[in-house]
């Protein structure tokens, strides 16, 4: 079933390398499987499980099976340097992954562009903009981090940024007061425009208009009353209490999604952004490039 859904794939040793008393058929996650496990948060336990396995007391027979050659373990002995060393090392360790060509392309591109240990690194999106990926860029980078060829890190500074949409500024340390200010600006805008929805009179002359009272047409107040399922008269007090950040952003979303109201620029969301991880060749990756490496290393 897992193989049919391309989550797990079978990997076998060539016939000439098989031994009667050792396993020769193996199973591993495909890139699709790794993506799925990552989305479900299951790959985070990989290191813990490895540590637990290393602490186990095993018999000689179990150890023999554990050390049995896997598909892709064989390699040539020549010493390689530069991007060839990176490619050989990746191909040797990740030959059974679908994205091995993408992995080699990323490592080679970073090396050729000088994105090494002293560089500020590139975000995943920046790398994806420079290269054409056949497989998920996230999975490709995870494979390279797993090999310790790439270093994954966050740049110096806050790990999270708070942004005022209206001011188009980072407001770290001012989030709470900014949320309160934006809510009051929204309420002021709601009150100022609650009676200005107008339509032509049915029996009037061209240009004659009549004001629709608040609640009779689609006003900001009525939109938010529907969104939060509260009476129109309670919208302002509702916005001022509880989780004001969530209510502010949800209110702005509802107003923007309405076809009856032009939101304007008098108020805006308060947004939290996590600093993107950056990637660069690791010290080990550079040692492969500069010192040379055989695939057996």
Automatic annotation (TrEMBL):
Please give the superkingdom of this protein's source.
Answer: Archaea
| InterPro entries the UniProt entry points to | WH-like_DNA-bd_sf (IPR036388)
Full protein name? Uncharacterized protein
Species assigned in the record: Natribaculum luteum
Organismal lineage: Archaea, Methanobacteriati, Methanobacteriota, Stenosarchaea group, Halobacteria
